[in-house]
Amino acid sequence: MKTVRRTGLVAQVVDGFEDEIVSGRWAVGSRIPPESMLAEMVGVGRNTVREAVQVLAHSGMLERRQGSGTYVLSSRRCLPVTTTGPSAVPPEDVQELKRLLVSSACMAVAVRGDAEDIESIRKKHIEWAASAETAYSDPDAVDILSRTIIVSTRNRAAEKLFDALPYISDRKLWNTNGDIERAFRGMLKALFSGDRIGVALEGASLTVRIATPGPHPADRPWLR
């Protein structure tokens, strides 16, 4: 695989990965190298690699499997490969949508999730909480809390939508040291204690704070 030039990075990485698949070097059914290795192979950052993988997953050529890796699903595109879809929208809109998806997913897990689902989320929450205080050498190790919550809904459409969106770390999504982070932590605390009503209340509060630009407006009682 050739080193990618520093222009049109995502598009070039997508083209390079697609060549690997079409040529058969990455055979259908095989697992592709991990993101850290891919980033080193093409000479770009992991975020660029992750976004390129998401584009190809959205096109139907790759498939992410939780806890297993990313596999070649097809040597042909089911949908057009493009980097002008979700990647072209404002980053703040992507951030808002991802927060709303995770908030809704958490409420769904509270209703129909089992003990194994909730325990999986709890373990990832411990890692995420620790990441707020520690500079990890491998941030990917703790940047899967949001996706774990999405996967725990067992809703494949939600999972595919989440993966199709540009990558945003859990730190950027939730480590805000403000109302959004407090509401998110409160919702998870209620989830872990089995308090469905608490999850719903904290989830509603979180949704309001996500959708409201800036600090929560105290002068709008209908938003409380």
Keywords for this structure?
4% strand; 224 residues; mainly alpha; 10 helices
Number of strands: 2
> What would you call the structural class?
mainly alpha
User: Biggest sheet: strands, sense, closure?
Assistant: 2 strands, antiparallel
| Low-confidence spans | 2-7, 136-141, 215-224
The count of helical stretches stands at 10
Widest sheet: strand order?
A: 1-2
Q: What is the beta-strand fraction?
A: under 5%
Overview of this structure, please?
The protein has helices spanning 9-22, 35-42, 46-59, 91-112, 115-131, 145-152, 156-164, 170-174, 179-192, 196-211; strands spanning 62-65, 69-72. By secondary structure, the protein is mainly alpha-helical. Helix 4 runs antiparallel to helix 10.
Describe this structure in a few short sentences.
The chain has 224 residues and is mainly alpha-helical.
Topology (elements, then pairings):
Elements: H1 9-22, H2 35-42, H3 46-59, E1 62-65, E2 69-72, H4 91-112, H5 115-131, H6 145-152, H7 156-164, H8 170-174, H9 179-192, H10 196-211
Antiparallel strand pairs: 1-2
